[in-house]
Amino acid sequence: MKVRLTLLGAAIVLCTSVMAQQPPPPQQAPPAAAQAPQTPPLRVFIYAGLKTHAEGQHDYPQFLADWSKLLTNRGALVDGGLHFPSARELADTDVMIIYKGDAGYLSIEDRATLDNFLRRGGGLVSFHDALCGPEPEQFASFVGGAKKHGEVNYTLEADVPYTVADPAHPIMQGVTNFTIKDEAFFNMTWSKTPEIHVLATAVMAKTPSAGTHAGEVVPQIWTYEKTLGVGPGSQAFRAFVWMQGHNYVNFSDPQVQPMLLRGIAWAGKRSTDALATERPRGGRGGRGRGGQF
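The structure assignment produced for this chain is given below.
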C-alpha cells in the first residue's frame, strides 16, 4: 500500500510539473468597444472692428466678447481680435466670422492670406456691413454679394420683413417669416459664377434713403460655395451671410441667434447642430486658443 501511495504521489508531481511547463491557452481579446468617430471642435476666428455708430449699433467689440464666450460654451475653439488674422492664425481656423465695417478694404498681403485660406476650404461668415468696400466685385467673389462703400444704399432704422426662400435648408430649420427692426442694403454686386443660394429675402422699406428702391425684394440671408483654383489641395469653401446686425440687440433674437449658429457650423463644414447645445467649461476661463480676455 505504501509503495502504491508513493507511486501515486510521484505521478501527481510529474503531471503537475508537465502542466506547469505547458504554455497557457490563448485568450480571446475582448471585443473592441464600438466608438462613434469624434468630430474635432470647430475652430473659429472672429474678425471684429472698432465701435462705430450710436449706442447699441455696430458694436463690433461687444460681439467679439459676447460671441467668443457663446461659441466657446458650445464647444468651439475661439480666437479673434480687431485685426485681420495672420496666415499663422488662419492656419488653425475652420471658419472666420467677420463683423466690422468695410471689411472689403484688404491690403495685398491680407488678400493673399484670405485667398490661401479659402483655397484650402476655410469658411467665411459675414454680418452686416462687413460686405462693404471699394471693390465690391472682389468681395462678392468671397461671399457672393457685396456693397460699394460710399453709396447711399441702405434703409436705416426700418422694418426688415424676412420671407424664407428655402425652408428646407438646414440653416433655416424651424425659421418662419418674421420681422426685425434693422437696416437692409439693396444696390448689391452679385457673383455670377457661381450665384448665391438665397435663404431669405426682404421687401425694402419706404425710407428717405431707400428712394426709388422702396418695395424691391432683395436677398438678405444667403449661402455661397466656390472652389478657388484647380491644383492639389484646392477645396470648395463655404460662405454664409446675414446682412443685418446694425442693431446689436438683433443678435439675440430667438429666431436669429440659432440661425446664425447653424450658419457658422455650416460654413465650417460641420453638422448644423454642432453649436446648438450649450456646455459651459466650468473653471477653465479664456478663449480656447486665444487665452484670457
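Interim note for the steering committee: The radius of gyration is 29 Å. The chain has six helices and twelve strands.
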